[in-house]
Amino acid sequence: MSAADWKKKCEAEWSLQGAPMPDSLDWKSIYEARPLGRNLLKNPAPHGLSKDIPPPEPELPTMPTHGPPRFQPDGDFTGWSTSTEVLPYDTSGIPPGVVICQLPQYGWFSMEQVIDLKAEGLWDELLDEFQPEIVIQDWYEESQVHESIYQLQVKLLGADKSTIIAEYNVNPAEDLSAYSHTWKEVSHVFSGYGPGVRYVRFLHRLKNKFMMEFFPTLFACSSVIVKPN
């Protein structure tokens, strides 16, 4: 297949009519990279869970294990940069002189990926002039361990990986008045973000609780997808 044929194949399959498509690009390699319409995040479900199946109910032992505190859930986090922030005990609302036997301790578990859009197969002219939609989607468990259990920060960055061209932040508050245990969706679409975007920084934080046992907040099916307009 000729270079022109590969270019036409990309244009037809990804509906790129009107998009800048320089002849100088290797359209066969771009087609094989398939940068449009696929999830650019690596390992989007480290816990092996799917949003299409309800999150697992916590399994409590018959006797507390009283093990050392932990703040990172089980999972294969290959492809993610992870960190843990253990929060101080919250003693607000406890009257003076009250004897405390046990308090919950919370910690944020953060996971981050930085996506190199050009390395994934996108090209300068498409990003700068056509500015295809960048669709963000994430699903987190309604764990009910706290009223604040999830934070998401997504930044579109320039070539220097530090200039912020556009960003989206969310920190939802949970309703703990009634028990509910489902997946909750968070989504956002970047469009018309301006020229210069070369990287996407995806960072989400989930709060876990330790009180004699470990109570995590899990997530599933995170995605960053570039779509033609």
What can you see in these coordinates?
The protein has helices at 3-13, 27-33, 124-130, and strands at 81-86, 105-116, 133-141, 150-157, 164-170, 183-190, 199-211, 213-215, 219-227. The protein is mostly beta strands and 229 residues long. The chain folds into two domains: 1-34, no CATH class; 40-227, Galactose-binding domain-like (Jelly Rolls, Sandwich), CATH 2.60.120. The strands form two sheets. Strands 1, 2, 4, 5, 7 and 8 form a six-stranded antiparallel sheet that branches. Strands 6-3-9 form a three-stranded antiparallel sheet, with no helix packed on it. α1 (3-13) runs parallel beside α2 (27-33). It is elongated. 26% of the residues are buried. The mean pLDDT is 90.
Q: Which structural class best describes the helix and strand composition?
A: mainly beta
- Helical segment tally? 3
**Rg estimate, integer Å:** 22 Å
- CATH architecture of the largest domain, please? Sandwich
The best one-word shape is elongated
N- to C-terminal distance: 27 Å
Largest sheet: 6 strands, antiparallel
What oligomeric assembly is this protein in? single chain
Low-pLDDT runs of 5+ residues are none
- The overall average pLDDT, rounded, is 90
Helix content: 10-25%
The helix/strand order is: HHEEHEEEEEEE
**Which percent range describes the beta-strand content?**
25-35%
In total, how many domains does the architecture comprise?
2
GO cellular component, one term: cytoplasm
InterPro entries: F-box-assoc_dom (IPR007397), F-box_only (IPR039752), Galactose-bd-like_sf (IPR008979)
Biased composition (Pro residues): 53-66
Domain FBA: 30-228
